[in-house]
């Protein structure tokens, strides 16, 4: 990722951000060949490239174990809305990614999940002055066809900025109701 911001005070307030990412389908194929433990370690180490949304918003997995994941986001100017706060969709994307990975890591049958509902509660304002924040997610329930998870967005001192819960639909699981 290249940030080509123009220094303040130069009379030009245009910023440009160039983002590069790996082909997500190729990454998914590579990931499918790893054991669950290898996959989680590869996500944390960076050996497995981040998906495009993570590259664009600049968040990354920093801890991962089965059913629990931590995704770090360092808020910066690209995340801000017109009032100088981190846009709610940025926080939502980070929380959703953390919960999705936590749930996906809980599966053992090769199925995939997709977010079908997310409830998000903002607790306090988030800005780049807040410093790095972490979405700490955990799987709450894993059923045959659905799963649920929760995640907190918090800073290093444990101050919480948002709380989310989500429901996920398992795909690729035999439908027992036919």
Topology summary:
Blueprint: E1 2-3, E2 17-18, H1 24-32, H2 36-45, H3 52-57, E3 59-65, E4 68-73, H4 88-106, E5 112-122, E6 133-142, E7 146-155, E8 160-171
Antiparallel strand pairs: 1-2, 3-4, 4-6, 5-8, 6-7, 7-8
Key features of this structure:
single chain; 178 residues; alpha+beta; Thiol Ester Dehydrase, Chain A; 6-stranded antiparallel beta sheet; two-stranded antiparallel ribbon; 4 helices; 8 strands
Structural class: alpha+beta
Distance between the termini: 48 Å
Quaternary state reads single chain
Mean pLDDT: 91
Question: How much strand content do the residues show?
Answer: 25-35%
What is the CATH architecture annotation of one domain? Roll
Predict the CATH topology of one domain.
Thiol Ester Dehydrase, Chain A
Over all CA atoms, what is the radius of gyration?
A: 17 Å
User: Count of helices?
Assistant: 4
Question: Which CATH first-tier class of one domain would you pick?
Answer: Alpha Beta
Could you explain how this protein is built, in words?
By secondary structure, the chain is of the alpha+beta class. The chain has a domain at 65-171: Roll (Thiol Ester Dehydrase, Chain A), CATH 3.10.129.10. 25% of the residues lie in helices and 34% in strands. The protein has four helices and eight strands, in the order E-E-H-H-H-E-E-H-E-E-E-E. A six-stranded antiparallel sheet has the order 3-4-6-7-8-5. It has a two-stranded antiparallel ribbon with strand order 1-2. The chain is globular, with a radius of gyration of 17 Å. The mean pLDDT is 91.
